[in-house]
Write a structure and sequence with these properties.
about 650 residues, 6 domains, 5-stranded mixed sheet
Length: about 650
């Protein structure tokens, strides 16, 4: 029953948080005020009944705070490392005839939590095992730590603070400087947990998984570690995934984890085996280095021998040209592997790689292909003197004793990956099958140098179908998507060009003003453009600057030769009933499929739709005309009519 309450609390917290985010940050409403209040009251009642308040609960606010330094504190009992084995037989021998618990060995930063009187009192990092840093302020903003629990005695537990691969990729994506990107989730987590300002920690999305209960006064666990895990779950903690096993079931239990690791979003570098019998484990004592009640299992790397076929030089948006080893395909950990990043010139030189060399490869943590060794070491690799993406000269640079290869061209096409991503996006040319990752591969191969090249990819069919992740069917789907995209509209094209400040809405405004005549837009003066309602001087300057650039013009002309621009049907003046009127839409709609459809309806009749209510707004459309939303309040302050859909359709 208690677990059901906790699950319902998690569900309510998520629903309310999403609704609040939509309302306050995105000016849209996912539910009525009545419904929000009803769910909020239910959550508050469950928290009172259970005595548990989960991290991030809408019923509590955790203030951000900056510190000058992290204080240090000695642990109540030393935190030892674990002895290790890479053999399942070693695990069987360790288990003997005793029941054990097998769990993930998570790869993050170990943290000790202390609760008193139901409140989180203290959080301390492992440090050197004897002394750690106090990070209580940061722990309060971990995504999933309960701030209050029902248990009122002193509770001390240990767990791993981690950052998922998904959040790791998201954070690295926001960092343009390749040298500043984080190398792995563990390094990112370590820095995030030990921030002096916990607002930074909150943005990083740190999570906590309990793996050991150290102390819980007056609680009878029946001498079972498994019961401790279950009890911690009942208090609102996420515990590390675990299974019961003995020597006879050890192989199939380890295989359960092995089957998951390639898709598991939480970084892990192995497993932990612990005796379920608490008293027995404690009776074994410890060595100077290790406790005797637990042992770590490290994945034995499955190493395969293969032949290096080539080094592919992959340009990136940062200007770095990264070496990628291409080798004869081998089966590792259940999948075929034929390529592995070499990361930089320093690593490539240390391995003394040469075409035709015999190399050994493996998957780091059973996930990421890596070169283990080079058995031949011929060193016959020529470093390219020109960038494969743009043909400009390359240079070798050394930063902190690490050599990398760089493109010297500031306008290298590989650095413009975001521009290509925008061009193929849904509101632009809308080309299915061309993700950002695929575009990067095609640019690295030299298939794409300009927008027009996207419509000539068919000539690289043989190369593309042989690429990892592609095949005849994927190629056919891509060609179909490109063929569909050839037939487009001028607003889509104009938006896709990536002119600074010209989004999908402004592109439509420009096209309507100039009667969908691209030549008129290309030759318009800054003064003409500035007079258009909603454009203004800054955007007008951006448009003029774009079309004055000779390279932009040449690229656009090449692109136009690949496209068929569909002109809209002539608009009947009598149908432009909303010309000159500005609308804002909020809340849910019922007469239209969604708000975008309503927006298109307004624009097709000459109206304009903006995101916020201002003095220039003529009408606010909101089916809940009596709501106390921020937009309704603003409209009332400015005496702007608030219309339901029915009232709007009567205009």
């Amino acid at each position: 029953m208690e677990n059901q309450k906790i699950e319902r609390m998690r569900e309510l917290a998520h629903i309310l948080t999403e609704a609040s985010k939509a309302y306050y940050q995105e000016d849209r409403e996912l539910m009525s005020n009545y419904e929000y209040d009803r769910l909020y009251d239910e959550l508050e009642q469950l928290e009172q009944e259970s005595g548990i308040v989960l991290a991030g609960s809408p019923t509590t606010k955790v203030g951000y705070e900056a510190l000058d330094e992290l204080p240090r504190e000695r642990h109540e009992s030393p935190m030892l490392s674990l002895d290790k084995t890479k053999d399942i037989e070693g695990l069987k021998d360790f288990a003997g005839n005793h029941p054990t618990i097998v769990s993930w060995k998570l790869d993050g930063l170990t943290v000790v939590l202390t609760y008193r009187d139901g409140q989180l009192e203290k959080a301390v990092t492992r440090g050197n095992g004897e002394i750690g840093e106090v990070i209580t302020n940061n722990a309060r903003v971990f995504r999933n730590i309960p701030l209050r629990i029902s248990y009122q005695g002193e509770l001390i537990l240990r767990g791993e603070a981690v950052i998922t691969y998904t959040d790791f990729a998201r954070i690295n994506e926001e960092i343009e400087d390749a040298d500043a990107k984080y190398k792995n989730p563990r390094n990112l987590c370590s820095g995030s947990v030990r921030q002096l300002n916990n607002e930074v920690t909150a943005r990083r999305g740190v999570r906590f998984y309990a793996f050991a209960l150290v102390k819980a006064e007056d609680v009878d666990f029946g001498n079972s570690r498994k019961n401790q895990f279950d009890w911690l779950k009942s208090q609102g903690f996420d515990v590390v995934e675990h299974y019961m096993a003995d020597a006879s079931t050890m192989e199939e239990t380890v295989q359960k984890f092995a089957d998951k690791i390639q898709y598991y979003d939480v970084p892990s570098d192995g497993l932990v085996l612990t005796y379920d019998d608490i008293a027995y484990g404690q009776s074994l004592g410890r060595t100077a280095k290790f406790p005797r009640d637990s042992i770590a299992f490290k994945w034995k790397d499955e190493i395969r021998e293969t032949k290096l076929l080539e080094i592919e030089w992959s340009p990136s948006r940062t200007g770095l040209i990264n070496p990628v080893a291409i080798f004869e395909p081998v089966e590792i950990e259940g999948s075929t592997v034929s390529r592995a990043s070499v990361h930089n010139l320093s690593i490539m030189k240390a391995l003394e790689l040469g075409i035709g060399d015999t190399i050994t490869v493996y998957k780091a943590n059973m996930i990421i292909p890596q070169i283990a060794d080079n058995l031949t070491r011929s060193g016959r690799i020529e470093i390219p003197e020109v960038c494969p993406a743009c043909g400009s000269r390359t240079k070798i640079q050394s930063v902190r004793d690490v050599e990398t290869l760089c493109c010297t061209n500031e306008n290298c096409v590989a650095k413009k990956i975001k521009a290509f991503t925008l061009f193929v996006s849904r509101d632009a040319l809308n080309i299915d099958g061309l993700s950002e990752a695929t575009l990067e591969k095609f640019i690295a191969k030299g298939f794409i140098h300009s927008f027009a090249d996207i419509f000539m990819l068919e000539k690289y069919q043989n190369e593309i179908v042989e690429m990892e992740g592609f095949g005849e069917k994927s190629f056919a789907n891509l060609m179909a998507g490109i063929e569909t995209a050839r037939h487009t509209t001028l607003p889509r094209l104009l938006f896709g060009l990536g002119i600074p400040g010209i989004g999908a809405a402004n592109a439509k405004v420009l096209c309507r003003h100039f009667d969908h005549d691209l030549d008129k837009i290309r030759t318009a003066t800054e003064e003409e453009l500035s007079e258009i309602d909603g454009i203004g001087g800054v955007l007008a300057g951006a448009v003029v600057t774009y079309f004055q650039d000779k390279e932009n013009i040449a690229g656009l002309d090449r692109l136009l030769s690949q496209l068929q621009i569909e002109r809209p049907q002539p608009e009947n003046e009598s149908e432009q009933t909303l010309a000159g009127k500005t609308f804002v839409i909020t809340g849910t709609v019922t007469h239209f499929a969604n708000r975008n459809e309503l927006k298109a309806y307004i624009e097709s009749r000459g109206g304009k739709v903006t995101g916020s209510v201002t003095k220039k707004t003529d009408y606010l459309i909101n089916n809940d005309t009596a709501s106390s939303s921020s937009k309704n309040k603003k409209a009332k302050e400015l005496n702007i009519p608030i219309l339901s859909e029915e009232a709007f359709l009567e205009l």
